[in-house]
Amino acid sequence: MSEDIAERRADALLDAGRPAEARVHAAQAVASDPGNGGAWLSLAHALNELGEHEEALTAAERVIVLWHDPAAGHLQRCDALLRLGRIDEALDAARESVRLRPNSWRTHFELARATIAVHRRAEAWPVLGEGRAAAAESVRLGPEESDAFRILGVIHGEFKDRADARVAFEEAVRLDPNAANTWHAYAEFEYHADRDRVGAEYYSRSLRLDPHRRNTAERLRELAVFTSWGPVRNLGIAGVVLTLFWLTSLFAADPIDHVSRVVFSGVALAACWFQPVLRLSRTSRDLRRFGWNVLRRSWVTRALAGATAALVVAAALPWDVPAAFGYPLVLVCAATALLARKRALLA
Fold it and tell me: Are the CB atoms for 246 and 334 separated by under 8 Å?
């Protein structure tokens, strides 16, 4: 009887989002009755929520053997394997859960989730097609489940079916407007669709609902680089000042000397890049992503990079011709960045 009480307490705590306490009660139930499959299921769920996926795998294996519904064990096993990066095994576990429980929206949801992981690793379009069918079946079986519509929206996004993806995401947030996972997935979709302002808004909603989502906070810092006014303003000021500096020097008795050109170019570079780098400098991982991701997708940061190249040329070469082209080019880059930012905000 005591193990039944502990198991029920563990389930209630899991529903309340308190996995650490749930783990304690589930472990008590398992210790009292090692043959209690339901207690093992609660323990596997709690361990997965706590990030202890190797231990969750062991508990899930016990569920498959002991519980009257082994599909539940395969679902927990799939979740743990996905988080451990063992994607092929996770896909097999998800398929087995669908075979054992074909009329459950949850099993089809996990299958769709596993196919997305397989596709993102190796662009497996046939597998993703299987996932789209599973997601559609999940929606059919669970028309009131926000997660089912969320996973359907993600898969439509992978196929670039943007209109269908937005319909699915809108239904997901209508069913559960307080689901941080849904807002994050919706934001990721808009981010990859280059709708930066909308993506930033949805990332912010996700972060307000779950302040501990580190990947959401990182993405917001990336978006801030090319949706905020600061970098564009600084680039424009640098372009105007440097162009005036060069024009003034044309009428001076002496041409621009090399040292002055280096100093002015260095100050302009610092003004252009100080705010973007500061926003992304919390971890070295952010800076690596800045180089490969932000520059690749943002016209604002491409303009910053173009201005940087112009300033380097103007500062590095000792004669005046580079300055004649380099400094006005900074102003052109600033205008490009301003237009790009306006376009991003209106998207």
Answer: no
Secondary structure (DSSP) of 150-199: HHHHHHHHHTT-HHHHHHHHHHHHHH-TT-HHHHHHHHHHHHHTT-HHHH
CA atoms within 13 A on the CB side of 177: 1
Per DSSP, the three-state class of 135 is helix
- Helix, strand, coil percentages, rounded to 5, for the chain: 85, 0, 15
The span from the CA of 343 to the CA of 270, in Å, is: 26
Helix 19-32 vs helix 2-15: angle between axes, to the nearest 10 degrees?
Answer: 160
Closest CA to 63 of 32, 85, 30, 89: 30
Query: Tens-digit pLDDT profile for the chain (347 aa)?
Result: 455 666 678 778 788 889 999 999 899 999 999 999 999 999 999 999 999 999 999 999 999 999 999 999 999 999 999 999 999 999 999 999 999 999 999 999 999 999 999 999 988 999 999 999 999 999 999 999 999 999 999 999 999 999 999 999 999 999 999 999 999 999 999 988 878 778 889 999 999 999 888 778 777 776 766 566 666 666 677 777 777 776 776 666 565 566 776 777 777 777 777 666 665 555 444 455 555 555 555 666 667 677 777 777 766 666 565 556 666 777 777 777 666 655 554 44
